[in-house]
């Protein structure tokens, strides 16, 4: 009986299509293999064809050809079709999973590139690439590939090998090759998980262990939650495979005296039953292994019925852990989750066995982790930070990301509940009572979650307390300083409904991020630990070198603009910052935080998490080139918070805007603009103020490029913080970042009292406008003071 591989079948099909002699080289190009490989195949093919009375003719230096191809096709067609159906090509991913499975489950399996190349009928280069992937995959479980003269095999601890086998369940699930299901298990497990299990283990054993668990559930009148059920089922199957091969997971000295415990007794009963039914000799280490799972999942319960039992040590630990991690989450996110008692109770039910798993070093896989990373990346990372801090403070083991993923889902429920509360809406209409009622009715129909406080005319809004309003829906344009509003038609058409829906969706995605000052960052940030455009590893080395410590940092990725590296350090509070350029002219901030005080660390995380570098007031930070400027920025931002925000309309006067300046030099320009400020009453002494402006010019260039300069003077001779704008008739020389002359000058005059607060915000506001090329173009082309005034004071309200 001849079994051809895929390549050999393709070779025969190519031969059948040819009606003349072709050299071997001709076929190698089609099949993408060497001449040597095809010559070996040809020996097998010739024997195969002879068996079916088909003749292969070979002529030296000319080539090969099947004689009487028409008749040969009739003979071989059905046979080759049957062979092809048996030898369907498998995917690269599936091949790699198969190689991993065989290496993990067969302790005596020494494989090699040549063996695998022959087995899967692929090139050695493909197998070499497979090994690169496999080696990286094994490293996730602290396993290594060991290459010897006999071949390549796995090297690592038994506990890590079993963890790797368990995770294969989800690798098979991702591939989705096997479409068959096991009917006996279909009620409890989804088809994808069943298929994955059947790829790893024998069907009879899967059904057996499932029945074993169902009997335990019945015995203890409980139901094992699905994630625990899948993990427990998988690990018992692994025990049956590895344990029967003599691969012990624990040494005898590692096993304590647990025999009187109910969990240990039940584990022993299960292992003894498996030994009896399958003729295995699983020893006490497998009993201990299963015992740990029973304890960590809380499966085996005391059936005495004592409901008034005092909370165990584990219960107290779980409650404390839940409360502390929830406090961290609430502090960072600035929301109240603990008020939802049902969520807190469910969270406790998960945390109790989770802490037990950490105690016994038992890892469960989370089949949803990739979806959680994709759907809730920010919340997952905040939760990761919270578990790191609380586990460190309570001296508990590190929580793996799979477990953090489960916790994240509970906190997401809390956020959904938080956001689902009714929105207090004010409707502003024309004075007509009928039209306002019509709009309110339609709003309630399409947005039942709205609590419409009242309907008011624009003139009555002055008498309404807007602090208690979430947002405003209006049929008339409004002039509001703080509250955002949505402009709609009286009849609330489809376009209006979409705009409101988009607004709600946008705010839902933003509700995690609230504005926060940076008081603690300003206090703890060390100037010597501020870096510009340095690689992450280099920053870590420099920080450790600087503080003479060896801190292990854990990455917390909030978004593309904000990263946090979290570590722990006794007797010292470390806070560093790296500011890096990334694509699309954006900046990325990475905070390096290491300390022992978890409370302070949580508050610093709150400030960092809620710091939005895309806000206007952060633009100044993005332009900082020196470490001391960055330190100063966070310090000032912490002192003033949002109170440092400024209204450009209050510091810009149309009488200090001049678009036909006579100046032809830098000195003349500064004097001419100073004269404008003096005439408007801004300055008490123009000569002294000008001296302060010249002093600032000695500290660095104020020419920012694009033909614009922003000189500024912080002086006690300024009566009121103001800005003067001037456009020269011709270009004048100025020290600029792009080396080009300027013809538009913006002169800042800042009072002594404002120099440590408003000045930063003022520069930031103007810099935000000038960062837009269209704004610069409009500014240089302005024909009147009104145009310049409008460019810098135009509102950004939602319309």
Automatic annotation (TrEMBL):
Domain PRD intervals: 200-304, 313-421
Cellular component terms (Gene Ontology): membrane
Uppermost EC category: transferase
Pfam families with a match to the protein in the record: Mga, PRD, PTS_EIIA_2
Keyword Repeat (UniProt): yes
Listed InterPro entries: BglG_antiterminators, Mga_HTH, PRD, PRD_sf, PTrfase/Anion_transptr, PTS_EIIA_type-2_dom, PTS_EIIB-like_sf, PTS_EIIB_2
Keywords: Activator, Phosphoprotein, Phosphotransferase system, Repeat, Sugar transport, Transcription, Transcription regulation, Transferase, Transport
Stored Gene3D superfamilies: 3.40.50.2300, Mannitol-specific EII, Chain A, PRD domain, Winged helix-like DNA-binding domain superfamily/Winged helix DNA-binding domain
Domain PTS EIIB type-2: 423-512
Origin superkingdom: Bacteria
Enzyme Commission identifier(s): 2.7.1.-, 2.7.1.69
GO molecular function annotations of the record: protein-N(PI)-phosphohistidine-sugar phosphotransferase activity
Domain PTS EIIA type-2: 650-795
Gene Ontology biological process terms, A to Z: phosphoenolpyruvate-dependent sugar phosphotransferase system; regulation of DNA-templated transcription
Keyword Cytoplasm found: no
NCBIfam families: fruA
Protein name: Putative transcriptional regulator ManR
Provenance organism: Clostridium saccharoperbutylacetonicum N1-4(HMT)
Organism phylogeny: Bacteria, Bacillati, Bacillota, Clostridia, Eubacteriales
Gene, per the UniProt record: manR
